[in-house]
Every structure is written in C-alpha cells, then in structure tokens.
Amino acid sequence: xxxxxxxxxxxxxxxxxxxxxxxxxxxxxxxxxxxxxxxxxxxxxxxxxxxxxxxxxxxxxxxxxxxxxxxxxxxxxxxxxxxxxxxxxxxxxxxxxxxxxxxxxxxxxxxxxxxxxxxxxxxxxxxxxxxxxxxxxxxxxxxxxxxxxxxxxxxxxxxxxxxxxxxxxxxxxxxxxxxxxxxxxxxxxxxxxxxxxxxxxxxxxxxxxxxxxxxxxxxxxxxxxxxxxxxxxxxxxxxxxxxxxxxxxxxxxx
Length: 254
Known about the structure:
The protein is of the alpha/beta class and about 250 residues long. It contains eight helices and twelve strands. The radius of gyration is 18 Å and the shape is globular.
C-alpha cells in the first residue's frame, strides 16, 4: 500500500502564486482525475510533485508514504517509484530510446538487472503499444509525432513499473486510434499493478477508457469541487464557467 500526499502546498513561479494551499491524497489502487481551465495550476502540480526546481514550494509538504520528499531531487523521487508522463515530452538527440530505457531500468534494479530480460520486456511492450520497433534505435522523441511521443511515455511507464503515475494531458495530440491504445494500456497496467494514478486532462474522451474513482475540478490553484465520474458529465454539459460562477457555494459544499 502506497500513498502520495500533497499537504497544503503553496507554490510560486516568478513571484506569482500558482498553487494556493493545495491538498490531495492518492492511495494505491485509486485513479484521480484533475480537470480545469488552462492556467489554473494543473501542470504545475505535476512538476512540483516531481521536484522541478523552476517551481518554488513556499509552504506545505509532499509525502510519499510517510517520507517527506520536499528536498529530494527528481531522480530520487523517480527511484522511489513516482513517474510523470509529460504533456510535452522532450526531444533528446544522440540518446536512443533503448539506451535510455536500459540506463533507467539498470538504475532501478541495480545488480538484479539482466540484459536478456530487458530486451524481452522491451520488445513485448513495443508490440503491446503497437509501436514501430525501429523507434527503439532512434534518438528520444527525435522526429516523433505527437502520438508517438505519448506512446513513448506509456512505454517508459510499462518498463519502469512505478507505484505512483502522473499523466499530464497524455491524450493531447492523439488521434482516435492512438487514444484508444493509450487509454486501454493505462487501464491494463492499472489492473495488473494497482498503482496510484493522477490523471490531468481537459477532455472526457480519455475517460471513456480510463475509469476514475475521483474527479476534482481545479481553479485558481485550488480544488473547488470533488466527486465521482458523474462530475465529468456536469463539466461536459455546463463547462467550467458553471463552476466559476458558482465557486463560492461550491467551496462551501465541498
């Protein structure tokens, strides 16, 4: 049983407050979705959890299980089992996908790393995600389409088998077929491993495949409303302005 706890954090970027006393707890086997308009702090939350130094944690704490991870570097958080599938995956020329994944898995497994097992697992997951095997030998995301980049993030997730998964708009840039593959494979991994999942998205379409336990609406750096999957239907029918215009009453009810 693992728990990610974001406890009352306030975050600033370039002296501008982005997250305002934000709190959220995600346990093993739970899928949480955060939705909200652009600029409300959703991606900031994902980067703060991963330890991006561009974001200044002014107050509050982030815990993985009972360990305070405020001061841990990004790679240390990754070794604990926290994974971020990025909204805009970076292009790294000169480092192949295969070399990158081998180094990452070797760092995780240490003396237990076996090259044969790595190759077998990589090939199985490439096939599972319906990716071109030639992509293994290309520089990371070099010349990849938006859909290929997102599939590459899910490939990394399958290889590293994290305990906490944060997916930041993993659906952006995906066509209908790729969206179904990504959504189905995330749920397949969830059913096998029962990790904690935090999904950041704008659209209901991804939730046709990934079934959340909790949906949170975020505005101005705070969660103003939480509920089950039925909350998505309210967003679809009314938009975020409904919650913005009724935010005072919503906060009192939540």
